[in-house]
């Protein structure tokens, strides 16, 4: 029996997402182990991963929690790290925005870095895809990675100290973000925003509880917006 176009796109999305599993599996397992070693029980660890489903924000929050940072700082830092999700949502709405309310609700939950990156590239290359095909591809790239994240987090939480947390997967977060961000640096505004955030994070590394990240994120958004406005004015003048 032949598969529907949407099902075919689901499988393509799952296939395109396979390379990300290389970093997701060890990253999730080590997060689970670190979280239990920090004092969280298995239910709390899984609640963290299932509700937040954002490894970078989870690690940032966990580190601050172990440093006994104020709750407000923990929440603000996690929100700052995840500010990009709002931009992801605005970017992908033209493609998935006409789906049913239930589909959009599930898509908003599954909207994290890897499926966003894969889907936006796919939709740009194949603009004639139907809504059902786009939805199928998006969920195909998102659901398998999410299941792997849950499963390996649970494995790490259950095994706890049996999993070494110093096996050198620190590269998982930066490599993932490079794979996501690099194809999107298409305009001067994007590049200016990215450079601003990198420079300020390095300069403000001395600030307590990682608050330099909050300043860098806010400054990068302002710089990106100002450069975008300048570019639009320049186009209008031309």
UniProtKB/TrEMBL annotation:
Kindly report the protein's main subcellular placement as a broad class: membrane
Membrane topology designation: Multi-pass membrane protein
Q: Where is this gene product found?
A: Cell membrane
Q: Which family does it belong to?
A: Belongs to the AzlC family.
Q: Which GO terms describe its cellular component?
A: plasma membrane
Protein name (database record): Branched-chain amino acid transporter AzlC
Q: Which UniProt keywords apply?
A: Cell membrane, Membrane, Transmembrane, Transmembrane helix, Transport
Q: Does the keyword Cell membrane apply?
A: yes
**Superkingdom:** Bacteria
Keyword Membrane annotated = yes
Annotated TM spans: 20-40, 46-65, 137-159, 171-192, 198-225
Question: Biological process (GO) annotations?
Answer: L-valine transmembrane transport
């Amino acid at each position: 029996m032949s598969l529907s176009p949407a099902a075919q796109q689901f499988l393509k999305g799952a296939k395109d997402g396979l390379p990300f599993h290389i970093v997701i599996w060890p990253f999730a397992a080590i997060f689970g182990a670190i979280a239990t070693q920090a004092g969280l029980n298995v239910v709390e660890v899984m609640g963290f991963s299932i509700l937040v489903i954002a490894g970078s924000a989870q690690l940032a929050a966990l580190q601050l929690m172990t440093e006994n940072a104020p709750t407000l700082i923990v929440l603000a830092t996690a929100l700052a790290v995840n500010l990009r999700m709002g931009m992801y949502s605005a970017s992908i709405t033209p493609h998935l925005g006409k789906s049913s309310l239930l589909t959009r609700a599930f898509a908003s939950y599954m909207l994290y870095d890897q499926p966003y990156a894969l889907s936006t590239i796919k939709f740009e290359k194949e603009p004639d895809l139907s809504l059902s095909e786009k939805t199928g591809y998006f969920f195909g790239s998102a659901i398998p990675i999410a299941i792997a994240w849950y499963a390996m987090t649970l494995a790490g939480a259950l095994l706890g100290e049996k999993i070494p947390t110093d096996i050198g997967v620190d590269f998982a977060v930066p490599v993932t973000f490079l794979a996501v961000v690099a194809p999107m640096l298409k305009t001067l505004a994007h590049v200016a925003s990215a450079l601003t955030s990198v420079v300020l994070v390095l300069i403000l590394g001395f600030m307590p509880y990682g608050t330099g990240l909050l300043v860098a994120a806010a400054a990068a958004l302002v710089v990106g917006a100002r450069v975008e406005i300048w570019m639009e004015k320049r186009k209008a003048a031309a």
